[in-house]
Structure formats: C-alpha cells, structure tokens
Amino acid sequence: MKKAVLVTITFLCMGVQILFAQITEKPEFGKFAITNATIHTVTNGTIEGGIVLIEDHTITMVGENVKIPTDYQVIDASGKHVYPGFFDANTRLGLEEVGSIDLTQDFNEVGDFNPHMMAFTAVNPNSVAIPVTRVNGITNVVSIPSSGGIAGKAALLDLWGYTPDDMAMERSAGLHIEWPSALKGGFWDDRSDEEVQKEYEEELKELNEFWKEAVFYNEMWRQYDLDPEGRKQPDKNIKMEAMREVVNGEVPVIISVNHEKNIKNALEWTNDKEEIHFIFTGVNEGWRVAEELAEAEIPVVTTSLYNITRDYDNYQRPYQNAGLMAEAGVKVMISTGEGVENVRNVGFHAGYAATYGMGKEEALKAVTIHPAEAFGVADELGSIEEGKKANLFIADGDPFEALTKIEHVFINGYKIPMTSRHDQLFEQFLDRDAVNR
C-alpha cells in the first residue's frame, strides 16, 4: 500500500514538473512596426533598411520610408533580418510526444484504408515540442497521419493556438497514401523477388479498387444532387464520403515514396488522374528520376539528412538530392521528415541543401513559398507581402546558420514568447553547482 502511494506521488510530481516546463508567457497582439530591417520578402526581392507594419493578424505594409502611426509598437531591427516563417510540410508535430511511448502517439489508426481519419482532431496544442519548434522560426507545419495504405487527412497548422481550431489553417490539407513497395525491405527480408512482386500487385489492386469505388460513389451522389426528387438517395458510407473531396480534386494527395522503382510506379499510377493535385514526400532517390518528376509537375517534400539508399552511392547524395531535383525543374520543399523532435531544425536541413547545390535562394523558397503554393495557401503564407498573414521572424543573421539567433517570432499576428522547455531547462541547470554548495 505504501509503495503504491509513493509511486502515485512520484508520478504526480513528475506531472507538475512537466506542466511547469510548458508554461510560457502570454503572446502580444495588436499593432507592430518592424523598422530598419533587411527584409527578405522571397517573392519581391530584398529590401534594405525596410519597414514591416503588422496590424492584428495581417501584414499591412512592406517597404521603405513607410509612415508609422503613433499607436504602433516599434521594434528596431537595425542590423537584423526579417524572413517569412519557415514551413515544414511533412511532420507529426502535435500528433506525437514521446516516440518510445505508444500512449503519446496519435498519428495512426487500425486498418488499411482510413480516409475519414483527420489528424486535426488529434492535435495536441500543448505539446512541449511546439514551443521548441516555433522559437527557431518555424511558424507552420503539415502534420501527417501515418498507417496502412491510406492513413487519413493531414492538417496544415499555425504553431500558435490554444485549441486545434485556433491552429488549423487547413483541417483537410491532403490525403496521405503510403505507397506499396515493390522492393525488399532490407537484408533481413527473406522473400523471393516473385513473392515481393506478388504482394506489391495485391496491395496495388486493393488501392485501385478502393479508388474506383470512391469515384463511383462520388458520381452516384453527384447525380443524386442534380436530381434529388427523381432519384433514390444513396446510402451513406463514411469512408467514401471522405474521399469525395479527394476525387473531385479539392484536396491534394500526398504520396510517401522513396526508391526509384517505387517512384516510377507511383508516377505511372498518377498518369490517368489529371484532376488530382499530387505531392510526393520522402523521395530519397528523387535525383534518379528528377526529369520524370519535373515532366509530371509533381512537387516533392524531401529532407537532406538520411543514409544513402545504396551502398555504392556517393555519400553526398542525400545532401544533393534536393538541389538535383530543383535543377531539373521540380518544385522542392525541404522537410525534417515525419518526426517531432527535429522539426525545429528544418532551416539547417535547408542549409545543407543550399550548400550542396541547391543555392540559398532556392533553399529559402523550399521552406517558405514552395510549400505554401503546393498546399494552396500562397495567398496567406510563404512571403512577406501586404495582405498576407503575419507569420514571420526576426534574426540576427542567416537562419540557415546554427549560430544565428532568432529574436522575435510572429504567428498570425501574435508576437510569440521566445521561451520553450529547452530554454527553461537550460536556465534551471545553468547554476546547479551554486545551489548545491
């Protein structure tokens, strides 16, 4: 009995410590003027000594010699740089807390086909990883469910808000498909080539049948909507209902695929679906099929830090992958790759890509305007322009450099407190020797 009470008290204390570690200041909201800054607009060049005016949620003015109303809070950014908020388009942020504990993971569901499952409904706005991420200048992510063939709908999030409703820019940002592999899983995979191909064909057949059923279901309801009085109302099917916006081309289809053969198979599958907007994620061997991806006009989300996929590949290939695809004409987005802990490092991933052939300008687009365009929110995000949402940050240097300090972050017009669990732990343990004397 005493042992049980002691364990309970211990866990309660741990819970208090965790909650304490998440406490941050309240954000500021209102009218702000960022002055004397080098403004990297992304879409309209760089403005030296420029001014950005923010009112409520919106950027209201960008330029030089802008008259600042007296009721604006002025932030002097002399010697500083203003960038659009960075955007990681392939994460589990908000859906996972501790990778080794199942109870803190909410990105998967039982079953192979779950288009009706919405990542938005599982987002935890109080995740410790969110403040850690946003103080590094990342203002937006796409959180993607991952399980089975069709895992569900991804959510496009602002990284500030008290509820999922506050955070969600797009509740249904894209349908996620895990592409079936036509390759062995690794050296441990003892299946024959024939068995691998047979399993691939079976999985692809199931996907095709599900897709055809969805197209039929959508057409059936379309016909009924045109003549509700002259036709019998079809039965509702929750999974097929969730597919309607997909087959109508209203929601992108996000396909996770990595190896050359699988990418080619996925490209072939997309050929007869011209009305659908596809996005490929992962794409570790995209450089091998860059011309085909460019011809198909399919944007890709990739990372620059992963192990080489073949023993004989040059060790630089992961770093070069994004640049080689961009050079071929592919619209490339840089991501940290489905994780949680390292989403804060998306700028450094872009820095690797920039160094290994992509170039700084294209790498900056890969974490700003390109994901905004691919997910249909370029009218709100991705650049510093009048009328867009005030998602931006102020840095004392190049944000692709590890020593650069992010000094201010704005999300949806809110000036975000620059505190996180990392900062609090640093402060807590900085002078621990002094208190133990």
Automatic annotation (TrEMBL):
Keywords: Signal. Residues 307-413 form the Amidohydrolase-related domain. Pfam families: Amidohydro_1. The keyword Signal applies. Residues 1-21 form the signal peptide. PANTHER family: ALPHA-D-RIBOSE 1-METHYLPHOSPHONATE 5-TRIPHOSPHATE DIPHOSPHATASE (PTHR43135:SF3). This is Amidohydrolase family protein. It comes from Rhodohalobacter sulfatireducens.
